[in-house]
Amino acid sequence: MRKIYIILLLFVVACSDNKGCDGKYVYIAHAGGAIDGFLYTNSREALENAAGLGYRYIEVDLQMTSDSVLVAAHSWGMFNEITGYGHYGDSVPSLDEFLSRRIYGRYTPITADEVRDFFIENDSLYLVTDKISNPKLLDTHFSVLKERMLVEAFCYEDYMELVESDYNMVLYSCMASDLYMSLIKHLLLHDFFTGPKIEWLALHTSVCEYRMFEVVDALCDYNAALFTINDTTLVPVALKDNVRMIYTDSIIP
């Protein structure tokens, strides 16, 4: 059945014209925002710096420690590397180990609860989350922020639960485990299936190389948050029609 859908859609896109328009972008400080030339720190200082630079949307990557505490880190391999423990590979630290380290010898690691408190204190900011989209886990830590959260979902089941839980915005990820089938059922052919329509996509710049996204772009209205862009002239032409938000390391809003 999936092959039939894809063959049909490829035939239709071959006969379709792409849409064309320009728009202004909303900028998201990527991985907490760059600080002193350092990227991906997800640190307390990076959050404070991003807010000071005028970002209203700040992304935080979430990971779970070995003793099941949610914290801010891009990946354990990277966290170990930038805290001087690269020889640990991608091993997962405990909470005590996590908090005892310094990122690049100077920046402070933070827990999910500390991230929540930062955004409560800075009530004009929006929290964008990545890596983890489990609705129950996110509710445990961030329920008070739902109206100011953009959550990247990594499967349609999470997407549906997050939408129904009234998060401000849910972005279906191009890294989702069920990517193609979900796009077919809940974007391209949504009228024939139950569940909320996919309205926002979190897209990597490389997706324009995939034939499926030529189909999506030609046939569907959707909004996209694109990562990671540090020069707007590099936004792929094939995606420009739909990009509304950009994750960035260096573009100051």
What is the level-2 CATH architecture name?
Alpha-Beta Barrel
Number of helical elements? 9
Q: How much of the sequence is in beta strands?
A: 15-25%
CATH fold label? TIM Barrel
Order of helices and strands: HEHEEHHHEHEHEHEHEE
Strand order of the largest sheet: 1-2-4-5-6-7-8-9
Give the overall pLDDT as a whole number.
Answer: 90
List low-pLDDT spans.
Answer: 2-23
| Distance separating the two termini | 45 Å
Q: Care to count the β-strands?
A: 9
Question: Helix amount, in percent?
Answer: 25-40%
What does the main sheet amount to? 8 strands, parallel, barrel
Gross geometry? globular
Molecular structure report:
By secondary structure, the chain is an alpha/beta fold. The protein has a single domain, classed as Phosphatidylinositol (PI) phosphodiesterase (TIM Barrel). 32% of the residues lie in helices and 18% in strands. The chain contains 9 helices and 9 strands. It has helices at 2-14, 44-53, 76-82, 95-100, 112-121, 135-142, 156-164, 179-188, 211-219, and strands at residues 26-29, 57-64, 70-72, 126-130, 149-153, 169-173, 200-204, 223-227, 243-248. It has an 8-stranded parallel β-barrel with strand order 1-2-4-5-6-7-8-9. Helix 1 (2-14) packs across helix 9. The chain starts with a helix and ends in a 5-residue tail after the last strand. 41% of the residues are buried.
